[in-house]
Amino acid sequence: MTTLEPQDATEAQGSGYAAARLLLLQEKERTGPSRRTALARLTDDWLAALFAAAAPPRGVALVAVGGYGRAELSPRSDLDLLLLHDGSAPGEAVAALADRIWYPVWDLGIALDHSVRTPAQARATAAEDLKVQLGLLDARPLAGDTALAASLRSTVLADWRNQAVRRLPELAELCRDRAERAGELRFLLEPDLKEARGGLRDVQALRAVAASWLADAPRDGLDTARRRLLDARDALHLATGRATDRLALQEQDAVARELGLLDADTLLREVYEAAGIVTYASDVTWREVGRVLKARSVRPRLRTLLGGRSGDRKQPVERTPLAEGVVEMDGEAVLALSARPERDPALPLRAAAAAAQHGLPLSPHAVRRLAAAAKALPVPWPAEAREALVTLLGAGSSAVPVWEALEAEGIVTRLLPDWERVRHRPQRNPVHTWTVDRHLVETAVRAASLTRRVGRPDLLLVAALLHDIGKGWPGDHSVAGETIARDLAARMGFDRTDTATLATVVRHHLLLVDTATRRDLDDPATVQSVAAAVGTVGTLELLHALTEADALATGPAAWSAWRASLVADLVKRVTGVLAGEPLPDPEAAAPSAEQERLAVEALRTGEPVLALHARDEQPLDPDEPEPVGVELLIALPDQPGVLPAVAGVLALHRLTVRAADLRAVDLPTELGSGSVLVLDWRVAAEYGALPQGHRLRADLLRALDGSLDIPARLAEREAAYPRRRGVPAPPPRVTVAPAESRLATVLEVRAQDAPGLLHRIGRALEGAAVRVRSAHVSTLGANAVDTLYVTRPDGSLLPDEEAIDLARTLEEALG
Which residues does the UniProt record annotate as the domain ACT (predicted)? Predict the structure, then answer.
């Protein structure tokens, strides 16, 4: 019989563990908690064998801490190990023992967080480092002197409870700092499952709070949420083969397949829901911690003031009435002792409205009782319930935590059944800050500050809450949303007229911003089409406020002073049409004095003439100034290649084009013969100062005579920036807008935004021998929507087949 040397035995154990580990991770039938437990047990046995083979001295224990201590081993988790000794063994023997354990772990390529300490050293380190103390709360003996390990864990736990008043605020601050760095998991397209708010670190913090005995987290759904986040991290490790916690876009489909889910959206919804449960539990728990700590700090002072033992008398609890059946108690809105939810179906909304109006959280115990006992509202709702909903929405930002409390207990979906389809639904456009459900609530928050601008604040707030409700259904969400809004409005008890208004506002909630940024407002057909869709001044008023609230709730890229001014201009023109005022004929409009002066100069010199005028455009948020907008007027003798040349020069100078109007001006014969092209551009600097006019003119001259190779220069700039990984952009799409104008054929280009996009569009149109009357550029994040008004060289509209062919040609050129 052959006897293995200690080193050979260690290597054999390592190779056996590695093979068993690989086999375990390949078992498709073993998933989730079962796999994590089996992996932890397998690792326990291997480390215990390493410990035993090293012939350890007495008074030494191998202890798992942190996630490994909780037996939560994901496929690529590191091992958190503590070699604990009582100090009786020589230091060299303990160090040699540590090497006999640590090196085999490293040899297998497993990340290791290790330490060697006595119980006193462990306690001292924990007292200085909160993270170490949190890890020791989950200490679990693996081998050796288990009594020594159990004693340390009991001592650390006692220290934690004794020091909770000092250490819990420190833990709360740690959680806040981490949330600021990593963001809120349930709203991130690429969330960190561990570090982001609502992730696994917060679950660990909740366990620590519970271990302090000062407060405890709501238990409903928390274990399921934790398991779901751990399952997602396991699948991420298996799909990537890396120890990563960030759920990157390019990994989400593979992770969804690993979990047996339909697609990446289903994965995100499940992860978001789990994070939402953890976030709500955290909010409730930390609020309770604050209340307990405040009470503990007040009690000694009260005892001193009242003198001796008399201070120990129980003080009466103050209850301040807020609404019928609702009172304030200890900083929360709670149900009054006389409240009877089973007989009062409007109580959930009334309690929520009272809490939001007074800026108070709604007690989780009250919400739980309302969810369990409250009767369903009759359909249609009584006026009291409808008014309470409007009051809740009109409370502004304080409505958000109250709404989330209702959602946590399922009350929202009971009131609005269609809400379930938008709950935790991701929005993959990076312009959006929120998921669909939270975006709807945030829009109502923004709308609350605009209610003084409309005659029907109630309709504005409800429309804000419902405007994207159709995103839970296939097809155009505005069309689907119209039907849902009509049904929900009737359910809420609105009359036929109000129901029709809400349905119209939801159907056309994108009409104003899309039209203002993508269509020619000087074209009578543009204004008349909006007037026909809106119908009344009251509806237009609601749409105007909703447009602003929707954009502000979307994200910083969705609204600007420029967009606001375009929408306001459109609303002014539509209001005139609805009031019966005639629209001016754009064909009859004479050039301005400035345009005529530049045209005369261009005709006299035969060269381009430029004028830059700063626009009075104030940032919407003084703390986040946007690029300064300017009007750039260019006049030059009519010639081929003007649009691509000007667009290319502007791109080279890092100017963002917002709109461009092109018109030919025929000057009186006594001043000379010929046509002059006048271009009126609205541009903004991407960053830095605006370029000087003479530099723009010099580069424009070079572009027109062919000495400035714009495509090559733009290609050089693009090559200088490394391409980022991510989801590939969809191909460009060009469509013909159906019969929208009697002045020109309207093409709509949707493409990935990039420097020089309008230059490439201009080159393609130049090659197709069409004339561009105007261009309107709208960019949201990485997506550009450019609308072009084009005609034949003689000014006539393109026939349908010719327009379709042009759209295909442009699509191919951009592709």
Answer: 631-717, 746-815
